[in-house]
Amino acid sequence: MKLRLTNLRLELASDETELIRLAARKIRLVPEQITSLHIVKKAVDARKSDSVQFVYTVDIEVNVTKRIRFDPPFVVPIPVPFREQLSKGDRILHFPPVVIGSGPAGMFCALKLAAWGYRPLVLERGGDVDRRCQEIEKFWTLGELNPECNVQFGEGGAGTFSDGKLTTRVKDPRVRRILEQMVEAGAPEEILYLNKPHIGTDVLKPVVKGLREKIIALGGQVLFDACVTGMKISPGGVLKALTVRNQVELPLEVAVLAIGHSARDTYKMLFQKEVLMEAKPFAMGMRVEHPQDFIDAGQYGRFAGHPKLGAADYSLAYQDQERGRGAYSFCMCPGGYVVGAASEPGGVVTNGMSEHARDSGKANSALVATVDIADFGEGCLKGMEFQRKWEEKAFRLGGNNFNAPAQRLEDFLADRKSTDLDEQASSYRPGVTPANIRDCLPKEVGEVLTDAIRFWDHKIKGFIQDRAVVTGVETRTSAPLRILRNECLESVNTSGLYPAGEGAGYAGGIISAAVDGLKVAEAIIRKYREPEAGF
Ligand code: FAD
Question: Where in the numbering of this chain does the FAD-dependent protein C-terminal domain appear (predicted)?
């Protein structure tokens, strides 16, 4: 008999071999009657700082003849694994499908198409992960930005240089398959059961390479330095060809547009081609850094620093009823670094990343407030122009060299420039320049964040402190527009074009973008038969 047991609790000092004893006690058996035990989920419960525990869900097999009573939700049958219902369509494809962009949406879409025999061609504007590392290092040390290959663009997409958090609010059976494929590509197995899985930039890089190799082994192709610069659409609204690097015209029937939220030139090209899009709200603000041991102490009390716990995270939210805006912490990176994430000359953008060990000694997180059409005006590209405007202000404020404007959190609240910040105050590279961050934020965003931070200081006591430093500006939280698609996930007015992932406005984060990429691949498979061999 097989069972799933939830809410098995272990103290930090206990060993996981104890689980079998706990499981047996829960169903009134002796440990010897449990023939196998497999951890399905492991989470930290730190709600009581005097008793931090691990909480497990396990699947077990028992060797008994007596019937064991189910006791939902603590003792339940093991759920039947998701079985995919998918069969190929009958429309003939004359050309392999093209996937534009090799972020999580593009990669998982291509992987699925390749596994089903569609031999996709992936076109990525940036370089492969190795060259990308070199270009990014050049940017972070010398301030020399490559607009085609940076933290936003290149193999693996925006998430490659990230904290590699693999959490998502999306409840979808595809999530499990995505994590399994990451493990097959080299990610640690723990991501399959940790409640908050994370792999960090150092692990993500080989995983991304592994996924690429798999796409190729399954018959796909991946081309780097292959920016899609144009599209040929028939007067009847049918996609006919793509232009690559303003030079090569590529005839096709199906293209997946998985371009991420920072491909502003591509958004503009789509606008000129009259592909239907609409502006959408997003959030903007700044990044805050604290000493990691302060965050650990706030979250884990006397257990802070315990080797089994690692660096603690936090999540904060605030609703400003009067101004009608929400504020929240975003993309929190324990033990990480603030990174320069610009993709255009003349604009400073902050974000956060970490290595798998999360051991930089600093905790960083974006603190952002919502902005919408009332802030940037009607028109589908207005949000994007609004982002650019504030990024340019931050660039000038930082000294026109990709240094980020920086300020003590206390000075931000007092609305005054910091005067005594040194280079080590922030982990942001290439460097920081003391400034008043409010000068590169919309006035109301600054005001809402001020109230929110005072509120959060009650949630994490001491959040406002002299070692907390903010840098800005954080604008690339999600896409500033949505590329409209129908129930078959195709563009509403351009047949053959499949907008996917974060840039299309249908996902936010690595895993949800990958899920969306899979859904789009399935939509293509349902409609078309794979192309004949020989193309
Ligand atoms: P992207 O990953 O943005 O990929 C789009 C790809 O398309 C890029 O590689 C780009 O070069 C390419 N492209 C664009 N235009 C063209 C064109 N015209 N022709 C050819 N190629 C093109 N999310 C998390 O879940 N966890 C995290 O810890 C996390 N940390 C992050 C840290 C940083 C520094 C950043 C920048 C993002 C982070 N995110 C994180 C967000 C996450 O990376 C994105 O949500 C996710 O990558 C979106 O996936 P995507 O495939 O839709 O787009």
Answer: 281-477
